Amino acid sequence: MPELPEVETVRRGLLPVMEGFAIDAADVRRPDLRWPFPERMAERLAGKTVTALRRRSKYILADLSSGETLIVHLGMSGRMLISGRMPGDFFHDHAPTEKHDHVVLEMGSGARITFNDARRFGAMDLWPTETLEEHWLLKPLGPEPLGNAFHEDYLAERLRGRNTPIKSALLDQNVVAGLGNIYVCEALFRAQVSPRRKAGRISDKRVRSLVPIIRDVLTEAIAAGGSSLRDYRQTSGELGYFQHTFRVYGREGLPCTTPGCGGTIARITQSGRSTFFCPKCQT
Ligand SMILES: [Zn+2]
């Protein structure tokens, strides 16, 4: 499932072929993904210029010259494929249409953008840009982890007195938006905080230390995604998934990498999801 750094990588990959360009034609090949598409979606997209391409949490937001914003969520398996003419004189052949190519945008930049989603947990909607924050998917979201509203005082305040494990508290999208399972595991590992510890019972100093650590974990992953973007133009034109090494995620049974620890990474299930952590140095 794409997490925030993957979504940001997709946004950055789409930027040079979408922002500032018109959608010459939109081909909407089914009535829905996870939810029904908005009415007359193809007509509402065609002929409109993408004035800005932004991200909020794991949603890609394409502001249109019509005053509406196209909201895109990749869901579990959504992929974006760019074909056609690319900035820098790269060219990807138009792949034959595949079964799971659900929405195709022909851009004035010469690029064709294909949204493919085998499992159809993805979503698209159109909403007035002016009241975007009121959209039912965006309204419940807390601050962006890389934004100014997410800071030490804020997190300390939000976690005070909370009786849930810190892992669950950080996955709560109302506390901080877009933080998913992998990067919460990584952040707690670096902070040496046990994922099972009650959020309200962690010392103020340790709670505060989580803020720069969360920012670092995400920033490093976005940088890794950025290097993957340098390759995609020469390869498939597919955006969004890249190789990234984790310090704790997926490392069950392997030695802990904290210097001098000597522990072994364990896996437990919390709220139905795998948590990877070192029981020795994460306390
Ligand atoms: Zn350890």
Write a structural description.
With 283 residues, this protein is α+β, with helices and mostly antiparallel strands. It is 26% helix and 24% strand. It has six helices and twelve strands. It has helices spanning 4-18, 41-45, 152-159, 166-171, 181-191, 204-232; strands spanning 23-28, 50-56, 59-64, 68-73, 78-85, 91-92, 101-107, 111-117, 123-128, 238-239, 266-270, 273-277. Strands 1, 5, 6, 7, 8 and 10 form a six-stranded antiparallel β-sheet that branches. It has a four-stranded antiparallel β-sheet with strand order 2-3-4-9. Strands 11-12 form a two-stranded antiparallel ribbon. Strand 3 (59-64) and strand 4 form a beta hairpin. Helix 1 packs across helix 6, helix 3 (152-159) crosses helix 6 (204-232) and helix 5 crosses helix 6 (204-232). It is globular and about 55 Å long. The two termini are 28 Å apart. The model has no long low-confidence stretch (mean pLDDT 92). Bound molecules: zinc ion. Zinc ion is lined by residues 256, 258, 261, 263, 278, 280-281.
Q: How do the helices and strands line up, and which of them pair or pack?
A:
Layout: H1 4-18, E1 23-28, H2 41-45, E2 50-56, E3 59-64, E4 68-73, E5 78-85, E6 91-92, E7 101-107, E8 111-117, E9 123-128, H3 152-159, H4 166-171, H5 181-191, H6 204-232, E10 238-239, E11 266-270, E12 273-277
Antiparallel strand pairs: 1-7, 2-3, 3-4, 4-9, 5-6, 5-8, 5-10, 7-8, 11-12
Helix pairs in contact: 1-6, 3-6, 5-6
Bound molecules: zinc ion (ZN).
The site of zinc ion has 7 residues, from loops.
